[in-house]
Amino acid sequence: MVSQKTIDLVKATAPILKERGEEITRKMYQLMFESRPEYRLWFETTFMTHVDGGSQPNKLAGSIYAYAIHIDKLDELKKTVEKIANRHVDSQVIAEQYPVIGDFLLLAMKEVLQEQATPEIMAAWEEAYTALADIFIQREKELYQDDDVKLVASLKSQRFFNH
Ligand code: HEM
């Protein structure tokens, strides 16, 4: 759980994110692909298909905004988290990629919001992003383990039928 100060600051930035969130996420993908071009490979149905990423910048901005307004009532986000986590597992996203996305997201926030992105707000968002990333990492770990269990079961049954 994040600190009360972070909750207050993150909630206070929600209106700015509603207005400028997509500008921030567009900037984030631009900075990320400049520095890590290989990351495009994960975005099969978005950036690999559409130059501007199709609906992806808008979806990411929407999920960050939803997080900002629900940061103290995360239960309400369970269904959304589940959907995104499954999408990530389908795309083979790994835990190590979260800090990379996080760094570029914070950098983009700073570039777009300029003086509005005070050091206090940036520190709050760093803590908040890490907490959200941990939620996804944990759930995706479970989903990957479920896949492993299914794979092992399927291999065992194949062996059973082959003998
Ligand atoms: C807290 C961090 C993150 C949030 C809030 C987030 C949010 C989202 C959302 C809302 C979608 C769209 C889901 C849908 O279409 O239903 C999505 C898809 C996706 N995300 Fe994330 N994401 C995060 C971190 C990451 C990381 C670390 C990666 C690693 C590269 C990643 C890669 C992807 C990919 C590959 C897709 C599918 C895009 C495609 O099909 O082209 N995301 N994410």
From TrEMBL:
Every Globin domain range: 1-141
InterPro entries in UniProt: Globin, Globin-like_sf, Globin/Proto
Gene Ontology MF terms in the entry: FAD binding; heme binding; metal ion binding; nitric oxide dioxygenase NAD(P)H activity; oxygen binding; oxygen carrier activity
Organism of derivation: Aphanothece sacrum FPU1
Name of the featured protein: Nitric oxide dioxygenase
Alphabetized UniProt keyword annotations: Dioxygenase, Heme, Iron, Metal-binding, Oxidoreductase, Oxygen transport, Transport
Pfam families recorded: Globin (PF00042)
Family statement drawn from the similarity comment of this UniProt entry: Belongs to the globin family. In the C-terminal section; belongs to the flavoprotein pyridine nucleotide cytochrome reductase family.
GO process terms (BP): cellular response to nitrosative stress; nitric oxide catabolic process
